[in-house]
Write a structure and sequence with these properties.
Helices cover 68% and strands 0% of the residues. The protein is mainly alpha-helical.
């Protein structure tokens, strides 16, 4: 049972925070919680854009990762590779920052003004 919990933790976190960021997100720019990159913290507009975009990507990515993880767990495929799979999940979580940053740069200039 704990094997399931560990493997499902990252996809569930992505789904929960993805939904939260997409629907509500942190209201104000802050140094403690949220999608905090240099570009996302330029102004309120970039802050809200980044959270909606990140939320959508994390939610969809989390659902996809959840489906793959459940299938692998169901067929006992993860027994030998469990640690590596969790590391792969972390890598996916971090790599999904790239499309958010690209979208920010596409929609805003370097000073945070909408294009």
């Amino acid at each position: 049972m704990e094997k399931w919990f560990v493997n499902l933790l990252i996809p569930l976190i992505m789904i929960i925070f993805g939904l939260y960021f997409y629907k509500w997100g942190p209201k104000t720019i802050n140094p403690l919680f949220g999608y905090r990159t240099t570009m996302s913290m330029k102004n309120a507009e970039t802050w809200h854009f980044a959270h909606r975009y990140c939320g959508k990507i994390w939610f969809i990515g989390g659902l996809a990762m959840l489906a793959v993880t459940v299938a692998l767990l169901f067929f006992n495929i993860l027994d030998l590779w469990e640690t590596y799979f969790v590391l792969l999940q972390v890598v996916v979580l971090v790599v999904l920052i790239v499309p958010v940053e690209l979208a920010l740069r596409k929609n805003f200039d370097k000073d945070g003004n909408r294009r």
